[in-house]
Amino acid sequence: MYYIGNHLPVANGYEVMAKMELELGGNTFAFFTRNPRGGRAKEIDIKDIQKFLKIIDENGFGRLVAHAPYTLNLCSDKEKTRNFSKEVLADDIKRMEYIPGNYYNFHPGSHTGQGTEKGIGIIADVLNEILSPGQTTIVLLETMAGKGTEIGRTFEEIKEIMDRVTLKDKLGVCLDTCHIWDGGYDIVNNLDGVINEFDRVIGLKNLYAIHFNDSKNECGSHKDRHERIGYGKIGAVALKRIALHPAFAGKPFILETPNDDKGYIHEIEMFKKWMEEKQ
Questions:
Q1: Per-10-residue mean pLDDT for the chain, 279 residues long?
Q2: Residues of 90-114 as b/e, b for ≥16 C-beta within 10 angstroms?
Q3: What is the separation, in whole angstroms, between the first and last Cα of the chain?
Q4: Contact 61, 20 (CB under 8 A)
Q5: How far is the C-alpha of 169 from the C-alpha of 67, rounded, in Å?
Q6: Residues linked to residue 114 through DSSP beta bridges, in sequence order
């Protein structure tokens, strides 16, 4: 089974999001838990949740990949930002339990001059404080492009965070194709080599989701600029190989490409056609 969908706008309600994705042809999706620039999340509507759960069950949806706001930075050098980020992370994980068994993805953060080692330590400490044995939500560290002082630019940096977290079964990775390409991993000419490196360092068992994007930049640019599938430097041929690679089978693929609804319908149909050709 395969799962493909896109990143929907800020949630207007879970039922609405599920219906939107069905219209686009997808069977999974990503969504921001609140405004991507931060702020308070909407109150949980139990009736809305119940209608949503019914829709995704009846239509065979895969795991959903919620996304933390971009302003979340657990390892900022500013205490106010760190405290805000910690509060948002804790609140979002609690909210995710209303739709149990799904994923919550976040950017590890930027150390803002404190150094990678210190930043990694702060991130791991917060996760150790917030993650709980009873939660059903898997929290995902996203692979990053490495611009500025971002943490997560290499598989080794992601692994260092994971090694320091006690509840390892509550933690995983979301691999972003644009980010790792911009980060210097050549998934066009050496896909198997990159996958083997990921497996050696992090372990494929810890990979839960794919952000499926082309890139406007050359490999190793460290810029993080997404492009529509087939219109960037990665290209449709290489992205098709990724979609069909057995290492990623059954994972939710989330499109974060600069598209309107018509563009997402096209990309979802293209992905489905690739899968049908495989069969």
A1: 91 90 98 82 92 97 95 94 94 96 96 94 97 98 96 98 98 98 98 98 98 98 97 98 97 97 98 89
A2: eebbebbebbeebbbbbbbbbbeee
A3: 11
A4: no
A5: 19
A6: none
